[in-house]
Amino acid sequence: MAAERPRRRKEPIQVAEKGRYVYEWPRPMVTADVAVFAFIDGKTHLLLIQRKIDPYKGRWALPGGFVEIDEDLPDAAARELAEETGVRNVPLEQLGAFGRPGRDPRGRTITVAYFGVVEKDWDRIRPADDAERAQWFDIESLPPMAFDHDEIARCAIERLNTRSGRDPATSPVR
Question: For 29-163, which CATH superfamily applies?
Answer without folding.
Answer: Nucleoside Triphosphate Pyrophosphohydrolase (3.90.79.10)
